[in-house]
C-alpha cells in the first residue's frame, strides 16, 4: 500500500519555504564582493581575512561563507589555523564581476529590484481589485476640477470628442453636461473599459460611448477633439511625441487636442503639488510633470498650432492645440 508517508512532503515543503533564503545568500555574497575577492586572492582565505578586506563583521561573514559552502558556491578547507575558503567553478564562472560569463548584474537586479517587488506579489495577484480602487481614486478629482478644465476653452465647436485614457469617465461626464451637442468616446484598455461600463458610467448615458484599445498600438479614429487628461505626464518625451503625432494624423482639420495636466511653473519652483506629483511619476510611471513651455513644444513638434494655455487655479490646468 502506498502511504502518503512514502512521499517526502515535508522535504518539498521546506525546500519551497526556504527558496528565498537561498537566493538572498547568493545575492548578498555577490554584492559584498566575496567571489571577486576570492578570485583575485592568491590562495584560499580565512573568514577573518575576508571580513577585514570587505569591511564586514566577522561573525556575520563566517555564517555567510559557511552557508555558501552548503550551497556549493564555495569550498572550505580545514587547516590547523582554521577554515579557508575558495570559489567553486560555478562561482568563478558566473558570480564574479570580471568573468566573461558573469551574471553579476542580473543577480544584483534581482536582489535590489525584483526582490522588493515580490514583497507585493499578493497585491499584484489581487490587482483587479487594486485597479478598481485606482479608478475610483483617479475619478474622484473630476468632481472638484473637471468643470474648470472643460470650461477653460469653448469646446462647443467640437462635437465628436475622444477622451484617450478616459478611464472611469468622470471627465467625459463633465464634458457632455457642459456641451449638450457633443458626444464623448472613452478610449481605454479593454479591462478598464469593462470596469468603467460595469461600475462607473450609467448605460442610459447615451452620449458616452466606449472604444477598447491601446492607443499606442491600435488605430485612433477620426474626431474633432482628443482629450488627454493626465496621460502625457505618465510618459517620457519620445512616447508623448509618438502619441501626439498619431493623434495629429487622425484629427479632423480644424480639430484639436486638449491636454489636462498639473502644470509646473516655468522655472520649476512650484507649485508644490506639481513637484510632488512629478516625484510620484518617477516612482509609479515613466513620465514627469511639465511646464507650459514643455507641453507647448511637444504639441508644436507634433504639428499642432494656436497653442493656448489656461491655468484654472485648481489642481489641473488646460492646454489646447489646433490642427
Ligand atoms: C497617473 C496618475 C496618478 C498615474 C499614477 C498616479 C495619480 C496617482 N498615481 O497618471 C494621481 C495624481 N497624483 C499623484 C500623487 O501623482
What is the strand and helix layout of this fold?
Blueprint: H1 9-17, H2 19-32, H3 34-40, E1 45-46, H4 47-54, H5 58-70, E2 74-79, E3 82-87, H6 89-95, H7 104-118, H8 121-125, H9 127-140, H10 142-151, E4 160-164, H11 170-178, E5 183-188, H12 190-200, E6 208-212, E7 223-229, H13 237-250, E8 251-261, H14 272-284, H15 292-301, E9 305-310, E10 317-322
Describe, in short, the structure shown.
By secondary structure, this protein is an alpha/beta fold. It has 15 helices and ten strands. Strands 6-5-4-7-8-10-9 form a seven-stranded mixed sheet, sandwiched between helices.
Structural account:
With 323 residues, this protein is an alpha/beta fold. The chain folds into two domains: 3-120, Arc Repressor Mutant, subunit A; 129-322, Rossmann fold. Helix content is 49%, strand content 19%. The chain contains 15 helices and ten strands. The chain has helices at 9-17, 19-32, 34-40, 47-54, 58-70, 89-95, 104-118, 121-125, 127-140, 142-151, 170-178, 190-200, 237-250, 272-284, 292-301; strands at 45-46, 74-79, 82-87, 160-164, 183-188, 208-212, 223-229, 251-261, 305-310, 317-322. The strands form two sheets. A seven-stranded mixed beta sheet has the order 6-5-4-7-8-10-9, sandwiched between helices. The chain has a three-stranded antiparallel beta sheet with strand order 1-3-2. β5, α12 and β6 form a beta-alpha-beta unit. The longest helix has 15 residues, at 104-118. The radius of gyration is 29 Å and the shape is elongated. The termini are far apart.
